[in-house]
Amino acid sequence: MTVSGRNLIGASLLALVxxxxxxxxxxxxxxxxxxxxxxxxxSKRETRLQDTPIAITALTGETLQAMGASGMDDFFRSVPGxxxxxxxxxxxxxxxxxxxxxxxxxxxxxxxxxxxxVIGSNGTSSDPGGRTGDLALFDVRQIEVLRGPQxxxxxxxxxxGTIRILFxxxxxxxxxASARAEGSFTDGGGxxxxxQAMLNVPLGETLALRAVASRTETEGYxxxxxxxxxxxxxxxxxxxxxxxxxxxxxxxxxxxxALRQKSGxxxxxxxxxxxxxxxxxxxxxxxxxxxxxxxxxxxRLDLGFAELVSATAWQRTTTDRTVDGTSTVLAxxxxxxxxxxxxxxxxxxxxxxxxxxxxxxxxxxxxxxxLFYAEMDNRVFTQELRLTSPSTGRFLWTVGGYxxxxxxxxxxxxxxxxxxxxxxxxxxDVTSYRYxxxxxxxxxxxxxxxxxxxxxxxxTGGLRYYSYEKRIAGEVVMPGGPSYQGPSPYTQTxxxxxxxxxxxxxxxxxxxxxxxxATASQGFRPGGTNNTPNIPTELIPYESDSLWNYEVGVKxxxxxKRLDIxxxxxxxxxxxxxxxxxxxxNVFIFITNAGAARVxxxxxxxxxxxxxxxxxxxxxxxxxxxxxxxxxxxxSLPSASIGRDGDKIPYTPKWSGSxxxxxxxxxxxAVSGLVRVDxxxxxxxxxxxxxxxxxxxxxxxxxxVSARAGVRMDNWNLSLFAxxxxxxxxxxxxxxxxxxxxxxxxxxxxxxxxxx
Length: 756
Prior knowledge:
Helix content: under 10%
Number of helices: 6
Largest sheet: 22 strands, antiparallel, barrel
Radius of gyration: 27 Å
């Protein structure tokens, strides 16, 4: 990051605080200013945001609507240290991380829809953390982003933190409905449109139904020049959600929720930097289609001495994905020795005769263009039971248990693509085929308690016992020389592990406006086992990795709680990291444990409400994340791409920040106006570990501005918006050679909403 960029963020925050203080002074006439204090449930009980000794960002439904947020891509840059590595899919999908805790394997940042942890598909590379979905964000009550390990209350895969998306619940108070329609144009692309609707219907005094539906179609902006396809990376999303809440008496409620979402991407968001902006010359189209189904039941019973909560959920994710395989097949033609042996079923040191080699090459030339095609099916059942004490008294506690079963299936093919369209031929024309089945069972017992030692001074301790077992099985059903996929018989392996993690925190509330806290907390994520041809036996299983987070923070409120300034600093020590590497023949990807890392960081958040209608906010984030040991274990083969001691963790900007200003005012008795501007800065970051690697590249160092202006009259509102107002052309992902994914170009549109 440049010094000027860093100074720009700092100067913006100082200006925000100074202008807020000036406005506070001007409004010191005793007039009432709405403070809009936020209530969060991060600690499994309701607390005021400023009274919660956790580094947490809360985005209310009103804020999300004012931002025009419809997915992860619209809000993640406003949260300190939160990163979405979007990859070829772009649009908010991909690997999510916070505070630099990112690597392949299970997710390092837990994602919850209400009380349900959402878990991605394993795929062939045992990397569910790289396939985080993106839920449509209409009729959402609040998003809470908890930074730092949350293992004692939220379990595995929350080693970096937790994101909670909380829906609006059905209400018996009365009929309500809303709808929103949006149309926009993307520079270099086409017309995008979406329609969203909500209906809340009381079904008596104790029963209510809330239904939400949305449909979004987004035009692409990448042109496939070889295939003659313009705007090839268009996408669509359809989402339906319904919740039924039954409250037969004040002490008991049960909410049944069903959600179904389908997303489709016609082609990758990569473009070839050597061809010019947004042009691509790939021989294939890389589609990505995903279906997500969730059925959950949440029961709450007030027992007097505690609240009993039961959260039961079943979810299923199906994914069809294609990746270009043409270069692999062409490589097998250029150097056919190994592929020819596979094709004819020969074992080294035997080699093909010249006649066999010619025959193989002739065959392989008929297998292009090629696609790696995966059909993934992931089914998960989760159950959590917990007791939470009332929020009064010197000792507050939560205890519970968690159970999870997961079934994963991936069918992995190399198939023929149509040279005219670049899409896979249907019915599929198979060159090679393998499958992998993964079954996971885990359970945990957890507890956390807070004791008030003396007035304002509180000690919190937490502990979680976990146990998991993973079984993985598979085989190469159809070997194929063009894909270097040799024979591999059915194999099945099992790994299991158990252990404990802990947390201790001391907080001191010096006054109602000043809170200090210090925390030492542990995080972990499960290990597993590989079903990968041609790897040594000792590399088949891999263990869980874990970390310790040491953190201090202060939360302050000023001017009658109209200005909040929160600061946190931390150090993280991460050991036995799960890393992704390749087999010696460079064909298959697998997970192993190697290396260690350290992260130093600091976060600043400012929120100001100086006068009625005006809201200001800003954040500044510093993250220095680097390896403290080589990512090589005793059984793995070092390569030029393996991270070494001192290398920076990829896709983790050292500096980032954001700022927002929103003003609402009455234009007349019946009409009000709204203006909002959102700004974010993302500093430089590497795309891979080794600076000496030919594909190493630093990207980032870009500023984004979005703006929205509108009016509200009675029950309807209309707004004009611009995302990426200055049409910044900045890479967010790169292969380090000539393929980049960039921030979506400037998009300008209108949004019309109505409420009943």
